[in-house]
Amino acid sequence: MSSSKPISLLTFSLFFFLFLNAAIAADPLYHFCFNKENYTANSPFGANLNELLSRLSVKVPPTGFGVSTTGQGDSQVNGLGLCRGDVSTEDCKTCTVEAGKELQSRCPYNKGAVIWYDNCLLKYSDKNFFGQIDSTNRFYMWNVKDVDQDPKSFDSKVKELLSSLSEKASATSKLYSTGELVLGTGPDPKLYGLAQCTRDLKGIDCKKCLDDAISELPNFSSGKRGGRVVGGSCYVRYELYPIVEDQKI
Q1: pLDDT at res. 248
Q2: Mean pLDDT for each consecutive 10-residue tract of the chain (249 residues)?
Q3: What share of the chain is helix, strand, coil (3-state, %, to 5)?
Q4: Which helix (H) or strand (E) holds 237?
Q5: Is residue 19 part of a domain?
Q6: N or C: at which end does the chain have fewer Cβ atoms within 10 angstroms?
Q7: Is this prediction's pTM over 0.70?
Q8: Are 123 and 110 in contact (CB under 8 A)?
Q9: Could you give the CA distance from residue 84 to residue 154 in angstroms, rounded to a whole number?
Q10: Distance between CA 192 and CA 244 in Å, rounded?
Q11: Span between the terminal Cα atoms of the chain, in Å
């Protein structure tokens, strides 16, 4: 686990996961206002940001991913949006539009911000970050309940599944993969996983991002029934129940 992450953030993630299933689906998972610089009201940067968010709300839904840049010089804004690989065009549109509104509400006048939902993420910055792994904006979530089996054996299975999904995701055009692994008999016979990257990354960088995220899981979710590492460029997740619709067939 990165030592730069505040304990308060991890504590928030822990308690949030407890109430995740009871939460409204449209609620954000988390957000960061990560730029130390601000812009002023009615400034060119603000106008360009509004234009950027409008463009992304149109550009992202058809394929589930989009990047855009508006303005020039100090007023330039760069942004991207990503929807989870199984999310419909309609739900992707809804999530992207809501994410834009929430970012401006939660990070007013900030020149760099990112927000995550179950269905999508949205990020913008005055810096050109396309094609670069975002290893700074990251948070963690886990289930507080322990598994019924040997923790070390379970952790090994989690790594096996997610590592295979990292390999598959990084080799696909969508940089997205889901899968499952049979654990054996018992109340939880299968382990389910998901891995996804933002599509501005190259395949090799996607795999690095995912593998780094997977390596962090044992630091906080060892022997736990579910866990996620969620970042600005990629995320991984495992559960003992289906995560996406195609895992329920």
Answers
A1: 64
A2: 36 40 65 96 96 98 98 97 97 98 97 98 98 97 94 96 98 97 85 98 98 96 97 98 79
A3: 35, 25, 35
A4: strand 234-239
A5: no
A6: C
A7: yes
A8: no
A9: 26
A10: 9
A11: 35
The pLDDT value given to residue 174: 97
40 and 120: one domain? yes
Instruction: Identify the residue whose tokens are 């009615």.
Output: 42
HSE toward the beta carbon, residue 94, CA cutoff 13 A: 11
Domain that holds residue 182: 139-247
Match 């070390």 to its residue by tokens.
152
CB atoms within 10 A of CB 178: 22
Q: Give the closest residue to 139 by CA, choosing from 37, 242, 243, 237.
A: 237
Q: Tell me, what CATH number does 167's domain have?
A: 3.30.430.20
> 96 and 115 share a domain?
yes
- State residue 33 phi and psi, 5-degree precision: -100, 95
Query: Quick one: pLDDT at residue 5?
Result: 40
Question: What is the structure's pLDDT at 10?
Answer: 41
End-of-domain residue from the set 82, 97, 130: 130
Instruction: Write down the pLDDT at residue 247.
Output: 73
The contacts of residue 223 (CB under 8 Å, 6+ apart) are 146, 147, 151, 152, 154, 155
Q: How many domains does the chain have?
A: 2
Question: Residue 156 and residue 228: Cα distance in Å, rounded?
Answer: 16
